[in-house]
Specification:
alpha+beta; 5 strands
């Protein structure tokens, strides 16, 4: 089993953006974004992250240096290895962010896209969840922080 982390972005700090606060409000959570972190530094300072971000244009892999007091980290255990993660991401890197799909988390009759992803959806898909488009960052936090 490999140790992987989920990094949850907190929208309750003074420098958070309007959209982060809005996402948190409508999903009834302090979290507006989630990253899957495969190669985390011991001090939670930085790591190789996988997600979909509107700030970056959609699905991407990138190294993130985490701003203190803006992120919460939850270690998870998974059989996912780097090769599997690389293979999955290579099929989806560059796909656009799914704004309608993200809205579908709170308005279930709004359809998402088969060719776009939002953050918690792609992370839940990578981790093998059924119906990943129904999960918000806060939902994933609640699932994994209670284990």
């Amino acid at each position: 089993m490999n140790k992987v982390y989920l990094a949850f972005y907190r929208s309750d700090h003074e420098n958070s953006r309007f959209m982060d606060r809005l996402i948190s409000r409508v999903t009834n959570s302090v979290y507006s974004h989630v990253e899957l972190v495969y190669d985390m530094a011991i001090d939670y300072h930085d790591g190789r992250c996988y997600s979909s971000s509107p700030r970056d244009g959609g699905v991407r892999s990138k190294h993130i240096t985490f701003a203190k007091n803006r992120w919460d980290f939850v270690p998870i255990r998974t059989h996912l290895n780097q090769e599997q993660l690389h293979n999955f991401m290579s099929q989806h890197i560059g796909k656009k962010y799914d704004w309608l799909g993200a809205l579908g988390v709170v308005v279930p009759w709004v359809p998402g896209s088969d060719h776009r992803w939002f953050c918690s959806e792609i992370v839940a898909e990578i981790l093998g969840f059924d119906n990943p488009s129904s999960l918000s960052p806060g939902d994933l936090y609640n699932i994994f922080s209670s284990k």
